[in-house]
Amino acid sequence: MKPALVIVDMQPECWGAAKNPVLVDNIIHYINEWQKRNLPIVVVTYYGSGKTHRKILSNLKNKKQVTFVRKYDCGGGHEILSKVNKKKISHFVMTGVFRCQCVIETANELEELANKPTLIVKTLTGCDEKDIYCMCHQIKQTSKKAVDKLLKAA
Ligand SMILES: [Zn+2]
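Above: the input record for the complex with zinc ion. Below: its predicted structure, written as tokens.
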């Protein structure tokens, strides 16, 4: 197994949900798990929306393992695949914001274009769930256990 950790739009300057310290720490926990195993990490930013959370950036120790991807739209599937094509990734574990917008859209593109399973875990993704337009209840979410299982097999 060679799962990739995909970090989407964790840009606190523009997206309030990306400031959530619990979410940031949950993502950093998995950054460390990924780094221990030398697995690929993809950091995606929405063009013009500021820098990735500095706590996340400072925890990315081995830059060779990290692919930085800029996207110009909500979904970043094409942009990600054009950069990680040769890495033989088995799964994409999605993190970041907003769960029912850019995260799910990017996940759907990855599944469609790469035909690889994507996992969306509630505690690794953020949203504004009080917003009336939030569609998170429609998303099929994976348990954190499934991610831990993937890591064990990696
Ligand atoms: Zn939502």
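Notes for the reader.
The longest strand covers residues 118-126.
The mean pLDDT is 96.
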